[in-house]
Automatic annotation (TrEMBL):
This is Polyisoprenoid-binding protein. Gene3D superfamilies: Lipid/polyisoprenoid-binding, YceI-like. Residues 45-215 form the Lipid/polyisoprenoid-binding YceI-like domain. Residues 1-26 form the signal peptide. It holds the Pfam family YceI. Keywords: Signal.
Amino acid sequence: MKNLAFAAAAALTTTGAILTAPAIFAQETPSAPGAVDASRITGGTYALDPSHTLVDWQVDHFGFNDYIGLFGNISGTMTMQPDNINDAKFDIMIPIADVTVASAQLKDHLLRPGKDGGQPDFFGPEPGMAQFTSTNVRQNGDTTAIVSGMLDMNGKAGPVTMLVEFTGAGTNPFNKKETVGFQARATIDRTDWGIMYGQGLVGNDVDLTITAAFEKQ
């Protein structure tokens, strides 16, 4: 009889726990600290969060499919005033040697020196930094702007224009810094920066998608 009573109590307790669990989880579910709300942005100087900023690049591979790679460990600054977006300025530094690709052989090729001291197929063993410096910012929507600037890469400089979308602002709950996020898209012709390898087999156009988080300094 005691065993039966114990089993019934255990079953009731378990059932109660199951019934109340959703309510407990619902109460503990946090809300995202960022939101697409321009009123959350304050003016000043921001620095990129290198742990959460990436440049995704895609290039046509033999006409079969797109190959995808990433650049990370990106640094840089943004200065802006939310009441005058057109005066914003960006200065971004991308370490080429930190490129991430799925194939170790391809990474070796990207950073391989040229044969007999000649021009490398891609970047070479000491590629340094790619630097983008904005020259013009023009707001063209409630949450979008067209940003133009110069990209210095592989020993050459050329113009790049990208569409930038504001994706969220708020306070980072861990480091308590005001944070603003953006996503940007652009297409560049790699031959403008001296990357001539595999023309006709590998596409000249490289599609860039940038996801960036800037923290208030």
